[in-house]
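haha ok so turns out i had the wrong file open the whole time. this is the CORRECT one, sorry everyone. sequence first:
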Amino acid sequence: MLSAMLIHRAIVRKAFASALVTLGVLGALEAGLTVAGVGWSDLYEGHASTYWQLRSDLDLAAVPHREEGTTFRVETNELGLRDDSIPSGQPWVLALGCSTTFGWGVDAKDSWPEQLEERLGVEVINAGVPGHSSHQGRRFAKELIERKPQVVLLGWGLRDGNQTHLRDADRRDPPWMERLRIMQVLRGSMQAGRSTVKNGKLYRVPPEEFKANVEQVVAWSRAVGATVVALDMTATTAHRTALESLDLPVIRPDISSEERFERDPIHFTAAGNGAIADQVAAVLLPIFSAR
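then structure:
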């Protein structure tokens, strides 16, 4: 009996020691991945299914534009915005939206917010986050609006109309263990090359929720004295109708097929971004002239 007890205790001690070693190794790996900035994406922090934003202080020389087989540079400021720091003590414009605002596929100088800045002579801060619907955008916008821009440009809608099996509002953060960087890396390795189902019976953000999200951001903007203008980046008639029912100016960008990428037609070339900048400048110049 005594011998059996001693053997049992030895096994427990070895198991406990092994567990401590395993936890130590995992902790060291997690710390190393955190320091190295490794996770599910070089561009983003957060979680891919619920809420994400661009990493701060990025300097990536060659982000792949897979459809076109090219690359483009991405740099971000301390807030994770594809721009310089937000100015203080002078007028500025806040451009919110998804990848069409961010300028997917082109360098920062060719994105429409940067080209708009040249036309206005007023700082335009590019706060576009690729993949954002109005659901994520609403959460992202509040802190930026509290910095009191003079004009807020709203460019959501494209991703709201994506079909899915689960609405953005119904998605929940995964358990803490799945949020560890090591788990994100392992998941990415296991899923590499697998196709994912993108279509479903639901919109990521139904039209009525899209309208409510935009209305809330408009209310926050007007509360700080900002003028609000929307860019119609919607992809469905229902979302477009919801946007046009709101009490705010709406610009529908007029972009030719030659001003869109050939194999990625939802995004715009440098010329297409310039065409948007021209259309937005025509609306904003009188606003700044009257101030």
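The domain at 47-178+197-289 is CATH 3.40.50.1110 (Rossmann fold).
again sry for the mixup
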